[in-house]
Specification:
Largest sheet: 5 strands, antiparallel
Number of domains: 1
Strand content: 25-35%
Number of strands: 5
Structural class: alpha+beta
Low-confidence stretches: 17-32
CATH topology: Nuclear Transport Factor 2, Chain: A
CATH architecture: Roll
Oligomer: single chain
Order of helices and strands: HHHHEEEEE
Distance between the termini: 39 Å
CATH class: Alpha Beta
Bound molecules: zinc ion
């Protein structure tokens, strides 16, 4: 539990407004105040029994846990966590952390994270892939996508190495 990942002050994760939680946003509410909600990674577990420990600094044991906790971090607007768990060789890695934080915050604030569907997961000692569908809405528009993510274990810690878009599975319900 070495570090906590905090949201930036300009984050207003709108998905929480749709999660049945009666939250009033004061610009800086703490993750601890929302620990009784169901986890935004859509595992069906409570946040405190799921991704919260990772957001509080514990390293996920598996790449799948990392992937889920990153989805939850986007939903909760924790840009710090996204940055900390991205491999420096990832094409999406920005060296301008302030700008990157701003971009993540903007994305999180304008996106509803409706569901996460895991289609596949393979892991070896040092690398892993997770294929998933992220069900997202932006301005009532379905912006869901499917991705195959690659993860690498670096010094005992799983990191998001890269992602590749894959076709959305057919016959899946969307939320738009
Ligand atoms: Zn979770």
């Amino acid at each position: 539990m070495s570090r906590k990942f905090l949201k930036t002050s300009n984050c207003k994760p709108i998905n929480l407004l749709f999660s049945g939680m009666d939250l009033s946003y004061d610009g800086m509410y703490k993750v601890s105040t929302i620990k009784t909600m169901s986890c935004p990674c859509r595992s069906g577990k409570q946040y405190e029994a799921c991704c919260q420990i990772f957001h509080q600094g514990k390293n996920p044991d598996t790449a799948l846990q990392l992937m889920r906790s990153r989805f939850a971090a986007y939903a909760l607007c924790l840009p710090d966590y996204i940055i900390h768990t991205t491999h420096p060789a990832n094409p999406q890695f920005f060296h301008d952390t302030a700008e990157w934080t701003r971009k993540i915050s903007e994305f999180s604030s304008h996106t509803e994270f409706k569901d996460l569907e895991i289609l596949g997961f393979q892991e070896s000692n040092i690398s892993a892939t997770v294929t998933f569908v992220a069900h997202l809405l932006q301005d009532q528009k379905d912006v869901s996508f499917a991705e195959k993510s690659y993860f690498e274990k670096v010094k005992g810690r799983w990191l998001y190495r890269s992602g590749q878009c894959v076709p959305l599975p057919k016959n899946k319900d969307t939320f738009a």
